């Protein structure tokens, strides 16, 4: 079982008994403001999402839940390589935790040496995510308007990449 440790965090594979913690994060409209889906209203939606993470083929996926003090507070990694995705519970923002998780994940990808690139697709209004990615060396590779229809809103994408 792959586990990554940082001073404050444990990154580990998802389990179905993480459902309540993951739903608490994914049902929060503030966390989900720039996500590729609307906030999860029903726990069944989070259950399907978590199931897809648990069942992901390890050959094409390298995804982690983030645990702090025994509580799952978010996720970071590639559900489908090479695209990275991440989110943290609202009460955990602004403490450098995403940066800590990002650093250990990038170090892992570098040490594996299997994939030469990580990519990201971020809403241009999502400044925290753009800053996090740029801080870790991701550079912008393009912008496209109208890529995501989320509820009533048509959203744009900034594409970024990190060569490992
Ligand atoms: C993106 C997210 C994970 C960042 O988590 P975090 O733990 O608060 O981030 P960190 O504290 O590690 O900060 C990382 C960098 O971003 C900067 N940052 C954080 N919040 C910011 C904000 N609102 N505006 C601008 N910069 C911000 C920090 O200053 C830091 O940069 P620095 O190292 O140069 O000081 C969190 O905001 C989140 O969960 N957002 C919602 C989910 C989401 O949109 N995911 C991405 C979908 S593509």
Question: Short summary of the structure?
Answer:
The protein is α+β, with helices and mostly antiparallel strands and 164 residues long. Helices cover 27% and strands 35% of the residues.
Question: What is the CA-CA span between the terminal residues?
Answer: 23 Å
Proportion of helical residues: 25-40%
Low-pLDDT residue spans: none
Q: If helices are DSSP runs of H or I spanning 4 or more residues, what is the number of helices?
A: 4
- Outline: globular
> Count of DSSP E strands?
8
How are helices and strands ordered from N to C? Answer: EEHHEEEHEHEE
Architecture of one domain in CATH? 3-Layer(aba) Sandwich
CATH class value of one domain: Alpha Beta
Task: Report the major sheet.
Answer: 5 strands, antiparallel
Strand order of the largest sheet: 1-2-3-4-5
How would you classify the helix and strand content by structural class? alpha+beta
Mean pLDDT: 95
Please name the CATH topology of one domain.
Aminopeptidase
Per CATH, the superfamily of one domain is: Gcn5-related N-acetyltransferase (GNAT)
Radius of gyration: 15 Å
List the helices and strands and how they pair.
Blueprint: E1 3-5, E2 10-12, H1 19-26, H2 43-54, E3 62-68, E4 71-80, E5 83-88, H3 97-112, E6 117-122, H4 127-135, E7 139-150, E8 153-163
């Amino acid at each position: 079982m792959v586990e990554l440790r940082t001073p404050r965090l444990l990154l580990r594979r998802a389990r179905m008994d993480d459902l309540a913690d993951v739903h608490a994060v994914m049902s929060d409209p503030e966390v989900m403001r720039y996500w590729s889906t609307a906030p999860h209203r029903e726990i069944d939606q989070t259950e399907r999402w978590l199931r897809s993470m648990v069942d992901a083929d390890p050959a094409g996926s390298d995804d982690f839940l983030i645990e702090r003090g025994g509580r799952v507070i978010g996720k970071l990694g590639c559900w489908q390589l090479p695209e990275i995705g991440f989110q943290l519970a609202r009460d955990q923002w602004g403490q450098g935790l995403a940066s800590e998780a990002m650093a250990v994940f990038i170090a892992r990808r570098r040490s594996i040496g299997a994939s030469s690139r990580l990519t990201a697709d971020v809403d241009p209004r999502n400044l925290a995510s753009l800053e996090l990615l740029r801080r870790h060396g991701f550079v912008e590779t393009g912008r496209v308007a109208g890529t995501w229809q989320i509820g009533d809103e048509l959203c744009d994408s900034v594409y970024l990449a990190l060569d490992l």
